[in-house]
Design goal:
- By secondary structure, the chain is an alpha+beta fold.
- The chain is about 70% helix and about 5% strand.
- A hairpin with a 4-residue loop joins β5 and β6.
- The longest helix is centred in the N-terminal third of the chain and has 58 residues.
- The two termini are about 60 Å apart.
Length: about 850
C-alpha cells in the first residue's frame, strides 16, 4: 500500500510537471508567434473602389447647404498662415546664412585638425543646425498634413454637391435652390484654390528646408569621416618631436588673428544656443531660485532650532552656503535640461562650477586633501583655457606640456598623504589606490606622447583625465548637497507626512543610494565620452542587442530580451513604490472601511504588475493581440498543474474583497496565535507571539476555522482564578479582588470587574476575577493584575491555601509487635 501510494504520488507530480511544461511551451509560442507570422501576401486582390457619392435628398438640400457653407467658412477662416510656418519663413534665410558662414569657417580647421576634441566640438555645432532644421521640417510636415486633410474634405463636399446638382437637373426645382447649389460649389472652388495656393507656398518652403538638411547631413558625414581618420591615426606622430618643434614658431600677429577668429566663432555659438533654448534657460534659472529658497529656509529653520544632532550638524556644514549649493546642483542638471550643449557652453559651465566647489567641498575634506581640490581645480581651468587657444600653436603645445608636468607632480605628491586623508579615498574609497596608480600612469603616458610628437594623443589623455577627475569631485559635492537636503528635509516633513514620520530613515537611505547610483552612472558616461570610447561602445552594444537568433521558427534578439527584463524590473519597482505610498501615506488619510485600504493597495499593486507585464511583452516585440493563446494555455495549466496556486489565488481574492481580517488583526488558528502582517493574493504572513513570520496559504484561512480576536472594537475579557481558604469571608475577598482590578490603569471601568464563586474545591473556595482590557495589552495586564491580586490578598490577611492530603496508616498486630520490640529477632514464616 505504501509503495502504491508513493508511486501514485510520483505519477501525479510527473503529470503536473508535464502540464507546466506544456503551459510554458504554449505561452512561449503565443509570445513568439507575433514575431514569426508571415507578412500578408502581396498578391491579395485590390480593395474595391470607393462608391460614388450619394446626392443630397431634395428635402434636405437647403439645410445641408447651410451646414456645408458654415463648414466652408470655418475652413476658410483657418487659411491664415500658421505662426510656426511664419517663423520658419522669417528665420530660414538667417539660419542658411549662418550655416554657410559656419561651414566656410570650419572647412580649413576640419581639414587640418589632429584633435578629436575639436572635431567633437564641430560635430556638436553641426548638431545645432541639424536639430533646428529637423524641428522646422517637422513643423512644416504637420501643417502640410492639415492642409491635405482640408483638401480631402473639400473634395468630398464638391463631389457630393456635384452629384446633387446632376440629380436635381431634371426635377424642375425652383431657381433659388439651383442657384444655392451653384453658389455653394463656387465657394468650394474658391476655398480649394486658396488652400492649394497655401500648400504650394508650404511645399516650396519645405523644399528649402530639405535642401538645408541635405547640406547639413553632408557636413556631418564629413565630420564623422574626419573623426574616424583621426582615430585611426591617433597613435601616430602628428607633430615634430618637442626638441625640434620650437625652431619655427608663429609670429605674434598671426596668433592674435587666430585668437580673433576663435572669439568670433564662440560668440556666434553662444548667441545661437541662447536663441534656440530660451524656455530651458528660464527653467534652469527657476530651478536655481527654487533650490536656493528651499536651502535658505531649511538652514534658517535648523539654526533657530538649536542643538542639532550629529547628522544634522554635518548637513548644516554643507548647507552653510545655500546659494552655492543650489548653483552647483542646477548647473550639473544641464545635460538633463538641454538636448545638446556646444563646447564653449560646457566650458563656461565647468568654469562657473569652480566657484561653488571651492565654497562647499574644502570644509568637508581633511586638511591635507583640500589643497588637492585647489590644485585639481586650477589644472582643470588651465586645461579649459588651453583648449581655447589656436590649435597647433606653440603656446598650446607648451601649455599642454606644463599642464602634464604639474599634473604628474601633483599625482606623485599624493603618495605622501595618508590613505584615509586622500581625496580619492573620500570620493571613492573602494577604488582609491587603483585610481591613483592609473592616474599617474596616464599622466606619464601623456607626457611621453607630447615629447615624442603625438600631440593629439597627449591632448586626449590629459583632457580626459582632468575632466574625469573634476567631474567626480563635482558630482561628489552635488551628492553631499542632496544628501544634506534630504537629511534636513525629512524631519521637517514628519508632522505632515506619515512616511517621513514612520519610515524617515528608510526613505533617507534609499534616496541617498539613488543619488550615489545616478552620480556614478553620470560619471561613467562622462568619462567614456571624454576618452572618446562612448560612441564605439554604444554602437557595439546596439549591434549586439540587434543580433537575432532562432529558436525553432521563432526569431529573437538580445535587445528584446533585455527590454523585457528591464521593463519588468522597472514595473516591479514602480508598483512597489506606488503600493507603499498608498498604504502608508494616501489611504490612511481617507475614511475607508476597515481593511479597505489594504485591499486597494493590493489590487493597485497587482494591476500595475499586469500592465507592466503586457508592456514588457510589447517591448519584446510580442503580439499582444494573441493573448487569447496565452489564456487558453493558462486554462490548461489550471486544470492540472496549477490547482493549488489557483486555489490560493482565488482564496486571496475572497480575503481581499470580503475582508474577514486585515493587517494588524490578532488571529488564532488552532494552537497558533499571531498578528496579521500582510495579506497577499497567494498567502498571508502572520507574525506569531514568538516573533516568527509564518506564511499561511490563503486556502487554509478560507477553508478552516480561524478566530479573529480583533475584528470588532470590543475589549478582550480576562479571567484570573483565585483560590482562598475555607473560612475566608467571601464578601471581604470579593471587595479586595475588585479593588485590585480597579486600581490597574489598563483595566476598563465598563464593563466593570466582577468576582464569581466558581466552585467548592477540595482545599479552597475557587473564585474567578473577571475583567476587561484592550486586546493589544491583554497579556501584560493579566500578568500585572495577577501580581496585584496576590499583594492585595496578602495585605488583607487572606490566605491562599496549598493542596493538603490526610494520610491514614492501618497497622496489623504483627507490625505493631515489631514496632514495639525492634531488637527481637523474628522467626521465619512456616512452610
Amino acid at each position: 500500500m505504501i509503495v502504491a501510494a508513493a508511486m501514485e504520488g510520483a505519477a501525479m507530480r510527473w503529470m503536473r510537471s508535464r502540464c507546466l511544461f506544456i503551459v510554458l511551451l504554449a505561452v512561449s509560442a503565443g509570445i513568439l508567434e507575433g514575431q514569426t507570422s508571415p507578412p500578408p501576401s502581396a498578391s491579395a486582390p485590390p480593395s474595391a473602389s470607393a462608391p460614388p457619392p450619394s446626392p443630397v435628398p431634395v428635402s434636405q438640400i437647403l439645410p445641408e447647404a447651410t451646414r456645408a457653407e458654415t463648414r466652408l467658412k470655418k475652413i476658410q477662416s483657418r487659411l491664415t498662415v500658421d505662426p510656426g510656418v511664419t517663423e520658419v519663413q522669417e528665420q530660414l534665410p538667417t539660419l542658411q546664412k549662418e550655416f554657410d558662414q559656419w561651414r566656410a569657417s570650419r572647412q580649413r580647421p576640419l581639414t587640418n585638425t589632429r584633435s578629436l576634441k575639436l572635431t567633437h566640438a564641430i560635430s556638436k555645432e553641426c548638431f545645432f543646425f541639424q536639430t533646428r532644421s529637423a524641428s522646422w521640417n517637422q513643423r512644416l510636415e504637420g501643417s502640410s498634413k492639415k492642409i491635405d486633410a482640408f483638401l480631402k474634405e473639400l473634395s468630398d463636399i464638391r463631389d457630393t454637391w456635384v452629384a446633387t446638382q446632376r440629380a436635381v437637373a431634371s426635377e424642375g426645382l425652383p431657381q433659388a435652390v439651383t442657384q444655392r447649389i451653384a453658389s455653394l460649389l463656387a465657394l468650394v472652388s474658391q476655398v480649394e484654390g486658396q488652400m492649394k495656393e497655401q500648400r504650394r507656398a508650404l511645399l516650396s518652403l519645405q523644399q528649402q528646408v530639405t535642401a538645408l538638411q541635405a547640406d547639413i547631413l553632408d557636413a556631418r558625414e564629413r565630420i564623422e569621416a574626419t573623426e574616424k581618420l583621426i582615430g585611426a591615426r591617433l597613435f601616430q606622430e602628428d607633430s615634430p618631436p618637442l626638441w625640434n618643434f620650437f625652431s619655427s614658431t608663429e609670429m605674434p600677429t598671426a596668433v592674435a588673428k587666430q585668437f580673433e577668429g576663435v572669439s568670433l566663432d564662440y560668440t556666434v555659438t553662444i548667441r545661437q544656443f541662447l536663441a534656440l533654448n530660451p524656455e530651458r534657460v528660464v527653467l534652469q534659472v527657476l530651478i536655481l531660485l527654487f533650490l536656493t529658497t528651499v536651502l535658505v529656509g531649511l538652514n534658517r529653520r535648523l539654526t533657530l532650532a538649536g542643538s542639532p544632532s550629529a547628522e544634522i550638524e554635518s548637513a548644516l556644514r554643507v548647507l552653510r552656503h545655500p546659494f552655492f549649493g543650489a548653483l552647483l546642483v542646477s548647473l550639473l542638471l544641464t545635460p538633463l535640461i538641454y538636448p545638446f550643449t556646444p563646447t564653449i557652453i560646457n566650458a563656461l559651465i565647468m568654469i562657473i562650477i569652480v566657484v561653488p566647489l571651492l565654497k562647499l567641498l574644502p570644509p568637508l575634506l581633511p586638511a591635507l586633501a583640500r589643497w588637492i581640490v585647489y590644485a585639481l581645480t586650477g589644472l582643470f581651468v588651465l586645461d579649459i583655457m588651453r583648449s581655447l587657444l589656436p590649435e597647433g600653436s606653440a603656446l598650446q603645445r607648451l601649455s599642454l606640456l606644463l599642464l602634464t608636468v604639474f599634473g604628474l607632480a601633483a599625482a606623485w605628491y599624493t603618495r605622501s598623504i595618508p590613505k584615509e586623508k586622500r581625496l580619492m579615498h573620500a570620493v571613492a574609497p573602494a577604488v582609491g589606490s587603483l585610481a591613483k596608480v592609473l592616474i599617474q600612469a596616464l599622466f606619464a603616458l601623456s607626457l611621453l606622447a607630447n615629447v615624442t610628437g603625438r600631440v593629439a594623443f597627449s591632448d586626449l589623455l590629459i583632457s580626459a583625465v582632468l575632466g574625469s577627475l573634476y567631474s567626480a569631485v563635482a558630482l561628489y559635492a552635488a551628492v553631499r548637497v542632496l544628501n544634506a537636503l534630504v537629511t534636513v528635509a525629512i524631519p521637517q516633513l514628519a508632522p505632515w507626512s506619515n512616511i517621513a514620520r514612520t519610515h524617515g530613515d528608510l526613505v533617507n537611505a534609499r534616496l541617498k543610494t539613488l543619488f550615489r547610483f545616478f552620480a556614478r552612472l553620470m560619471w561613467l558616461v562622462i568619462t567614456l565620452h571624454l576618452f572618446r570610447v562612448l560612441n564605439p561602445i554604444t554602437n557595439a552594444m546596439t549591434a549586439l542587442l540587434r543580433e537575432q537568433f532562432s529558436i525553432g521558427l521563432a526569431k529573437l534578439s538580445l535587445g528584446s530580451i533585455v527590454a523585457f527584463g528591464i521593463t519588468l524590473l522597472v514595473t516591479y519597482w514602480f508598483s512597489r513604490t506606488v503600493r507603499f505610498a498608498l498604504r502608508e501615506e494616501m489611504l490612511p488619510r481617507l475614511l475607508l472601511a476597515r481593511g479597505a485600504s489594504e485591499a486597494v493597495s493590493l489590487l493597485t499593486y497587482y494591476t500595475l504588475l499586469l500592465i507592466g507585464f503586457l508592456l514588457a511583452l510589447a517591448a519584446a516585440g510580442a503580439d499582444i493581440s494573441r493573448v487569447t493563446i496565452l489564456a487558453s494555455a493558462f486554462g490548461v495549466g489550471l486544470g492540472f498543474g496549477l490547482q493549488d496556486v489557483v486555489h490560493n489565488f482565488v482564496s486571496g481574492l475572497i480575503l481581499v474583497f470580503e475582508r474577514p481580517f486585515g493587517a494588524g488583526d490578532l488571529l488564532q488558528k488552532q494552537q497558533m496565535w499571531g498578528w496579521v502582517k500582510e495579506v497577499g493574493f497567494r498567502a498571508t504572513v502572520i507574525t506569531t507571539v514568538d516573533g516568527a513570520d509564518v506564511i499561511v496559504p490563503n486556502s487554509e484561512l478560507t477553508s478552516n476555522e480561524v478566530v479573529n480576536w480583533s475584528r470588532t472594537a470590543k475589549p478582550r475579557r480576562g479571567d484570573i482564578s483565585v483560590p482562598v481558604s475555607y473560612g475566608t469571608d467571601f464578601h471581604q475577598a470579593t471587595l479586595v479582588l475588585k479593588e485590585a482590578a480597579r486600581k490597574h490603569p489598563e483595566v476598563l471601568a465598563l464593563p466593570e470587574p466582577e468576582v464569581l464563586l466558581d466552585r467548592f474545591g477540595e482545599n479552597s473556595l475557587n473564585l474567578t476575577l473577571r475583567f476587561f482590557t484592550r486586546l493589544e495589552v491583554f497579556v501584560r495586564v493579566s500578568s500585572e493584575l495577577t501580581v496585584g491580586v496576590y499583594d492585595a490578598l496578602k495585605a488583607a490577611g487572606i490566605r491562599i491555601p496549598f493542596p493538603q492530603r490526610d494520610l491514614h496508616v492501618h497497622w496489623s498486630d504483627v507490625d505493631k509487635e515489631i514496632l514495639a520490640n525492634p531488637q527481637k529477632p523474628q522467626s521465619p514464616p512456616e512452610g
